[in-house]
Design goal:
- The chain is built from 19 helices and no strands.
- The longest helix is centred in the N-terminal third of the chain and has 34 residues.
- Helix 11 runs antiparallel to helix 18 and helix 13 runs antiparallel to helix 18.
- By secondary structure, it is mainly alpha-helical.
Length: 436
């Protein structure tokens, strides 16, 4: 028994070290291509005549097509394999993202954002589904948190990099915001090609594991699947599950806050600091640093206790309160403190939330259920930026929008407490070994 536990621990450690850094890099590029429009807007809005409302709506239109194609894309991924489908997703979204440099007006902006959402649909839930095929449940919160830390790292590095790319304005006669879209879109194409070579489809195919390690991991995951046979395991069952729909409603509150902040943070900080575009890029990285700390710490603690609901709820209450409070300050330092606390709370929700979701479904139903939660939830990615754009156009201030976002996030935390807690067993010392 001890030998089997050690083999499983070794297999899990190797899988984490091989897969997570690569997937982490993919998600940095994905998230950056999704929100780099926030930095482009510092030049683009004036250049092509976009109002605040038009920009907010266009930023959010990405999520309409993303939602529309999300479930079909993830079901296809489950059938044809993550390796092939993720490569296809990345190559197409990289081409479209780079093509944003040719936008000349509001209608073109809307159209390209719609195409970008359609191209990227299925990437995030596909990765979450892929991770369930590699890691035992007791490891999933910290594994998802490690992968999703890419969101906050993208915020940390994306701000300064995007700010620097804007400074290329006029180089070879090309606007800085056009350089930004081109140079941040092409890496997705290159990485998409690398996926075909690097990503291992299943534990059974992992030549980088010993035979004993492969067997121990496959046995553990098979036993986990057998024990979870009572879960919703069909596409129809997942789409009809009241628990899955409740989780989707809860998740709606997270993208409202994440993308409301992500798409407008540079302009909020520009208004409150008066700094240059590069200085705003540096300042925008600060809240994401706090988010990275919270995301990793919450994922680890959730796995060590096996508790999910209260980890999500408390983080939502903290984040929501900080968002609302940030509406009542206008100077730079208090704004940064509160927005950093808001991001810490928001980011801390991800690992526990997605583990709560993945333990609700199994089999092909997992692909559909995860995609349903992500797609319905990501309607919040349309609502949040559009809400802030409307408020900004109407009141010439972000205050009421920040209060609304905070209230929505806190409401999501409250709803989480209505989810039945399928508590995972706390991690044993042997199981914890791979992550030390």
């Amino acid at each position: 028994m001890t030998e089997a536990v050690n083999e499983l621990a070794a297999a899990t450690l190797k899988a984490r070290r091989r897969l997570i850094p690569f997937l982490f890099l993919l998600y940095i590029v994905a998230y950056l291509d999704r929100i780099n429009v926030a930095f482009a807007a510092l030049q683009m809005n004036t250049a092509i005549g976009l109002s605040d409302r038009a920009y907010g709506r266009g930023a959010g239109i990405f999520f309409l097509s993303y939602v529309l194609f999300e479930i079909p894309s993830n079901v296809i991924l489950a059938r044809v394999g993550a390796r092939l489908w993720i490569a296809r997703i990345m190559i197409t979204w990289g081409v479209v993202s780079a093509g944003m440099m040719y936008v000349t007006g509001a209608n073109g902006f809307y159209a390209m954002r719609f195409l970008l959402g359609a191209a990227e649909a299925g990437f995030f839930p596909g990765i979450i589904f892929y991770l369930t095929r590699w890691f035992p449940e007791r490891e999933q919160a910290r594994t998802v948190a490690a992968f999703m830390t890419a969101v906050v790292v993208a915020g940390i590095v994306g701000g300064p990099v995007s700010g620097a790319l804007l400074s290329l304005h006029g180089f070879w006669g090309i606007d800085g915001w056009r350089w930004l879209f081109l140079l941040e879109g092409l890496p997705a194409v290159v990485l998409g090609l690398l996926v075909l070579k690097f990503l291992t489809e299943r534990p059974e195919d992992a030549a980088w594991l010993t035979s004993a390690e492969r067997q121990s991991l496959v046995t553990c995951l098979t036993e986990q699947t057998r024990q979870g046979q009572s879960r919703t395991a069909t596409v129809g069952g997942a789409l009809a599950s009241s628990r899955v729909w409740l989780l989707a409603v809860i998740y709606f509150s997270i993208p409202v806050a994440l993308y409301g902040m992500g798409f407008w943070l540079p302009q909020i900080l520009k208004a409150r600091s008066g700094g240059s575009n590069f200085e705003v890029g540096l300042l925008s990285a600060i809240p994401y640093v706090f988010g990275a700390v919270g995301m990793v710490a919450a994922g680890r603690h959730s796995d060590s206790t096996g508790e999910r609901r209260w980890h999500v709820a408390i983080a939502a209450f903290v984040g929501g309160t900080a968002f609302a409070a940030s509406a009542f300050v206008q100077s730079l330092v208090p704004s940064l403190v509160l927005l950093s606390l808001a991001m810490l709370g928001l980011a801390s929700m991800f690992g526990p939330f997605w583990t709560l979701t993945t333990t609700s479904v199994g089999g092909l139903g997992a692909a559909a259920g995860i995609a349903l939660v992500n797609s319905v939830g990501n309607l919040g990615g349309y609502f949040g930026p559009d809400l802030l754009g409307y408020v900004r156009d109407t009141t010439q201030s972000f205050s009421a929008g920040l209060v609304a976002i905070g209230a929505i996030l806190a409401a999501g935390g409250l709803l989480t407490l209505a989810v039945r807690d399928g508590r995972a067993a706390p991690r044993s010392r042997a199981a914890a070994a791979p992550t030390r």
